[in-house]
Structure formats: C-alpha cells, structure tokens
Amino acid sequence: MSQIDKTENSPQCQDCVCEFNRLEEARFWSRIMQEHALFIKLGLPADQIKFIKEAQDFIERFMELRNRLARVSKLEGDLLRDLKQAVRDIIEFKAKLLRLLIQCKVEPGSNYPLLLDHIRREAMHFLDLLHKPVPEDPLFALLQEEVFWLRIMKEHIEFIIHLLDPSERELIKQAKEFRKTFSRLLETARDLESMNETMPKNFNTVIRFTENVIANTMELRDFKATAFELASLCEILSIISTPLLLDHVRREADKFLDELEVLLPEARKCHSTLGMENLPCCQD
Ligand SMILES: [Fe+2]
Ligand SMILES: [Fe+2]
C-alpha cells in the first residue's frame, strides 16, 4: 500500500498514524450535511417545489441519522451503511442541481454554482473519510488536509464577500484581505504537496508553513464568529439566508484547526529536524 511506501524510510513511523475517530467525524459531518440541505432549500426559487421537497427530505434523513449517531459508541453495521448511502445520495443531489445550473436549465435562485460545488466536495470528503480504512502518513495527511481545507476557507471568504450588502464596505474590505492571504496559502500548500511526492524524510518548511496556516485560520475563525454574532443581532446588511450559514463556516474553520492540532505534532516528530528530542514517534 502507498502508506507503507511513504514510511519505509522511517521505520519508527510505521505506526505513526493518528487515531481516526470515525464516529466523531460522522457526527460532525452529518450535521454539516443536514445544514447544506437547508441552505440549498433556502436558496431555491419558490416555484421549484420538487427540489425544495427533495432538500427537505435530506434535512429529515440526516436529522434521523444524527439521532442514531448520538446513541451509539461505534460506527458500524446498518448505521454505517445507511450513512454512506445518504451521503452518496446528497452528493448526487448537489451534482444534479449544479449540472442543471451550468446548463441554464433551472432558475438559479440564490445558490451560487460554486457553493453547490463546494458543498458537493465537502460531501465527497466525508464519504472518503467513511471509506478510508487506515490513516495516512502524517506529513502526507497534513498536506492533503491543508490543500482541501485552504480551498474551502478561501471559498467561504468569497461567498461572504458576495453575500454582504455592497454598503458593508468595512467588512468587505476585511474579507478581501483574507481572500488574498488564503489564496496565497492555498497556492503554497499545493506546491508543498507536490514537492512532498519526492518523499523527503524531513520537510521543515511544511512545519513553518503550517504554523502560519494555523495563525491565519484562527483569525479567519474569529472573523466568522463575529459575523455570526452580528447577523444574529441583525446588525449586518446582507442576503445571507440564515445566520446559521456563518456559524456553519466558523465550525468548519474550527474543524480544520482541530485536524491541524492533531497532525502537526505528528509531522513535526516524524518528518522534521525541529525539536528532535528523540521523542517516540506518535506515542507508539
Ligand atoms: Fe459546509
Ligand atoms: Fe464549507
């Protein structure tokens, strides 16, 4: 398997895998899926009754799955099967709507095509997590997650810019600064991921880069949290359908930070010459 190839130069890192908590992931992402269905529903034109009903069905389906996930201690059996099927179905629903929009076959409402693609990618990421049997080598996993999430973070900023009222000049200015930063970070993450295909044993630059990503993502998370508060208090002018959208993107930023918090120390121990105090790799 590719995982063995990636760690062959570092035998002590053979078991360098961070515990992958599928149940926690499933709980997090199921809520996200339920909210995606709500956002789609709110963005559809009022006469698209069939799609509105389909979106509502997904809201209820994921709500029921969340109730089941809350009652178990392990993700397996019928629940895992039903969850995978629901995720596959919502991926297809998002893809179908996007396809129709691309071909100008339905009225767009307020669902941006990029938003549909964004939430389709998030659902595919969730499905991958449900299938992935073994976590990857930490450096590989770190860069993969950074490329995935930095694109997501950059797009969140773009959606916020386009949903704010044009008179919200100060907030738009701040958001545009974030967009510049996150576009740069995404580009760099893609470069580093590509360079890592040569499998260097140590890659200190990734550690420094990730520390920078964390600092910037914390700032972005705070910006989203503030925007959510302002929207909840009706202190913001926008066409955001529900303040929940801002809380949703804030939770996704926190999820990214949580993942970095787990993966960065592993990558530092296994793939850098920084802080080499002969620590055992990944507490194996
Ligand atoms: Fe999302
Ligand atoms: Fe998102």
Key attributes of the depicted protein:
284 residues, mainly alpha, Ferritin, 9 helices, 73% helix, binds fe (ii) ion
Question: Summarize this, please?
Answer:
The chain is an all-alpha fold.
Number of domains: 2
Biggest pleated-sheet summary: none
Q: Which word captures the global form?
A: globular
What integer is the average pLDDT?
A: 90
The SS-based structural class is mainly alpha
User: What's the CATH architecture name of the largest domain?
Assistant: Up-down Bundle
CATH topology of the largest domain: Ferritin
- Provide the β-strand percentage band: under 5%
Assembly of the depicted chains: single chain
Query: Which value, in Å, is the CA radius of gyration?
Result: 20 Å
Distance between the termini: 20 Å
CATH superfamily of the largest domain: Protein of unknown function DUF2935
Bound molecules: fe (ii) ion
CATH class of the largest domain: Mainly Alpha
Regions with little confidence, pLDDT below 50 for 5+ residues: 1-20
Give structural notes.
The structure is a single chain. Helix 2 packs antiparallel against helix 3 (49-71), helix 4 packs antiparallel against helix 5 and helix 6 (138-163) runs antiparallel to helix 7. The chain has helices at residues 2-7, 22-43, 49-71, 77-102, 113-131, 138-163, 169-195, 204-232, 244-271. The two termini are 20 Å apart. It has nine helices and no strands. The protein is mainly α and 284 residues long. It has two domains: 20-115, Ferritin; 135-284, Up-down Bundle (Ferritin), CATH 1.20.1260. Residues 1-20 have low confidence and may be disordered. The structure holds fe (ii) ion (2 copies).
